[in-house]
Design brief:
With about 280 residues, the chain is an alpha+beta fold. The protein has a domain of about 160 residues: Thrombin, subunit H (Beta Barrel), CATH 2.40.10. Helices cover about 40% and strands about 25% of the residues. The protein contains 4 helices and 12 strands; from the N terminus they run H-H-H-E-E-E-E-E-E-E-E-E-E-E-E-H. The chain has a 6-stranded antiparallel barrel with strand order 1-2-5-4-3-12. A 6-stranded antiparallel beta barrel has the order 6-7-8-11-10-9. Strand 6 and strand 7 form a beta hairpin. The termini are far apart.
């Protein structure tokens, strides 16, 4: 409509003005004539102004529509670039984790397989996790889950494709351990606050000492980090020291773990059975 008025305004306005002028002229009335001329002579300017304003509004609207469209495209590109950045950061993290795992496997020389944590209790402090490996992947009960930083826990139940792991903070977890600096024996006991049990009353241990697995018991391999001491006090009984500890591995952000194969597990089980006979 606007385009039609703009193109044909002269064809519409001029004949209409001439018709009005001619009609008034035939009336031969001077006052009416000059009055009409005074009224209609600016008509073209007024209509031109209206059309110009409408054109400006129209093209302004088109500009805003195009701007909004460009903004949508730009926002989509920004979202896509954000996704690419996130994916790149995830790949970097996974690559770093993989390198650490490979280095750890080479260092220990123990056969192991990777597993992902697929379920955990409602809280990040839950002491039980499930991994996506089971009997069809060669996982058996009492296999140990570790990170390069230290021991995570052990497998307690296994299905065809899943396994349940008790973390070392689980109340039912007890691991034979030694203090790295003094070589004193103790038991690393899980719970809301991890404890060192049966620690010699005269042991020269202190806050910050590193706790390692002793390798005794036939489940956990020896010389793997368990945690460190955060508090020491003498037991009133006079027999043992009481000590609090924290795990060496970050158990609150578990995503992947290594499941260690125990090369002595079958032999130990056979010896146990033979001794019972």
């Amino acid at each position: 409509m606007l385009e039609f008025l703009r193109k044909h305004k002269n064809k519409i306005i001029l004949p209409l003005a001439l018709l009005i002028y001619g009609t008034i002229f035939t009336l031969n009335n001077t006052d009416i004539y000059f009055t009409a001329v005074g009224i209609f002579s600016p008509a073209e300017k007024i209509i031109n102004g209206i059309i110009k304003d409408m054109e400006e509004y129209w093209y302004g609207y088109i500009f805003l529509v195009n701007t909004e469209r460009d903004n949508l495209i730009l926002r989509k590109k920004l979202r896509d670039s954000g996704k690419l950045k996130y994916s790149f950061e995830e790949l970097k993290r996974e690559n770093k984790s993989l390198k650490e795992f490979l280095s750890f496997k080479e260092k220990t020389g123990i056969k192991s397989s990777g597993a992902s944590v697929i379920f955990r209790g409602a809280s990040s402090e839950s002491d039980t996790v499930f991994i996506n490996r089971g009997t069809e992947d060669g996982i058996t009960k009492n296999m140990v889950a570790v990170l390069p930083e230290g021991i995570v826990g052990k497998v307690v139940k296994v299905s065809k494709s899943l396994s349940m792991v008790y973390l070392i903070t689980h109340p039912n977890s007890s691991i034979d351990a030694i203090i790295q600096r003094t070589r004193d024996r103790c038991v690393f006991r899980g719970g809301k606050s991890c404890k060192l049990k049966y620690l010699n009353y005269n042991a020269d241990v202190k806050k910050g000492d590193i706790i390692l697995s002793s390798g005794l018991g036939g489940v956990f391999p020896g010389n793997f980090p368990l945690g460190k001491i955060v508090r020491v006090e003498k037991d009133p009984s006079g027999f043992f020291l009481n000590a609090d500890a924290v795990p060496a591995a970050d158990l609150s952000h578990l995503e992947e773990v290594l499941i260690l194969e125990n090369p002595y597990h079958l032999e130990i089980e056979q010896l146990k059975k033979s001794s019972e006979q």
